[in-house]
Amino acid sequence: xxxxxxxxxxxxxxxxxxxxxxxxxxxxxxxxxxxxxxxxxxxxxxxxxxxxxxxxxxxxxxxxxxxxxxxxxxxxxxxxxxxxxxxxxxxxxxxxxxxxxxxxxxxxxxxxxxxxxxxxxxxxxxxxxxxxxxxxxxxxxxxxxxxxxxxxxxxxxxxxxxxxxxxxxxxxxxxxxxxxxxxxxxxx
Amino acid sequence: xxxxxxxxxxxxxxxxxxxxxxxxxxxxxxxxxxxxxxxxxxxxxxxxxxxxxxxxxxxxxxxxxxxxxxxxxxxxxxxxxxxxxxxxxxxxxxxxxxxxxxxxxxxxxxxxxxxxxxxxxxxxxxxxxxxxxxxxxxxxxxxxxxxxxxxxxxxxxxxxxxxxxxxxxxxxxxxxxxxxxxxxxxxxxxxxxxxxxxxxxxxxxxxxxxxxxxxxxxxxxxxxxxxxxxxxxxxxxxxxxxxxxxxxxxxxxxxxxxxxxxxxxxxxxxxxxxxxxxxxxxxxxxxxxxxxxxxxxxxxxxxxxxxx
Lengths: 188, 308
Fold this sequence. Notes:
Strand content of chain A: 5-15%
Largest interface: A-B, 32 and 30 residues
CATH superfamily of the largest domain in chain A: Potassium Channel Kv1.1, Chain A
Number of helices of chain B: 9
Structural class of chain B: alpha/beta
Number of helices of chain A: 8
Largest sheet of chain B: 12 strands, mixed
CATH class of the largest domain in chain A: Alpha Beta
Oligomer: heterodimer
Largest sheet of chain A: 4 strands, mixed
Strand order of the largest sheet of chain B: 6-5-3-2-1-7-9-10-11-12-13-14
Number of strands of chain B: 14
Distance between the termini of chain B: 63 Å
CATH topology of the largest domain in chain A: Potassium Channel Kv1.1, Chain A
Radius of gyration of chain B: 23 Å
CATH architecture of the largest domain in chain A: 2-Layer Sandwich
Order of helices and strands of chain A: EEEHHHEHHHHH
Strand order of the largest sheet of chain A: 1-3-2-4
Number of strands of chain A: 4
Helix content of chain A: 40-55%
């Protein structure tokens, strides 16, 4: 994943690679924040780009970090894979301060990662990107027959659902019986 | 078939709903057919369906009306001959889904075969996707569809029909044979009529009967006594003037009936005197040799159409 003007990646949280300062708005220096995912690779992102994420925006507003504090304490998103976070950061940088177009051509193309991306975007509360991702998921089944939709979206049949439910009930019953037996053993 | 997989149901419910909402109405309806869970998810979306029309004929049709478009779902069951009536327990259903943005144009023909569920079960599923207040208009052509059911005891047959179809606002029952129009109705046809009336009349606002065989435990008087807003009777040859006195409806239309003008005149006179106070509007269409209408009550609107 290529670095953008505002954001780069590095392996060490303490020494993130700095990107050239933005040429725009030289009077007010732009503040940067740092985020990392499961892989601990730190991404430097401008506050403008992070505006897209309601979650991070809320965190920034509440914390009131200085540049140094932000550098020392990158926001940890342990539930998001590094490459997914990179995609999200790239998208935020590309759409920084711009109105989001109705059809986005900068969406990540790796459909295999769409599931993780949707979850990450939903967690980070990036409304526009979530809308695009949802459209991408919907496009996967456009013009498909029910059987194809079932296969692509992995929808079980009623019989499979019922079997899974029975299995779950059986398992829950066994677990409950095991717990009762253990409790009786403890009492003895 | 594509190799791409997406575990849609592993997403949180709100995300699944968000994705479904970005899809076209016909795609959402197709999705609802995949499983009970899928159907319930679609129901939770509260689709803006303004009304639903169902035509229960040889090849049943369900039309979902949205504000700017209509989704037409045609169902076809495999039959050995054209004479065989369509039954709710028929298996092996072929689906045709179309979208119609105007009266004359249908796009997106999508079709496929489904088996493992009966026609009744498919109709039940399709009807369950709209919210409870959606008005349903259903037309039963009982010359082509057998609703005598026959697989259950008679008291359970009514419940069986109620489970499949939702509460129906407007019911139209016709008896029209395309292939053998002269053939007389049989016992099973009478039973079908009785079952439909017993199952749905209580919640209906409007009932239309067209050439319907009414007999046995059911009469036009029984039907007219129900608290209907509107009753329309076409080609009901067994209609007598005495039946009109018993009707408990606000608007009544009788067309191509067997009532003589003399009898009708007698009814009008008594109506003017105050019998049948609930009846506000009576529309009579027929062929009369002599017309004589006198002193109608001013407060009562009366439309009297005559076909020479």
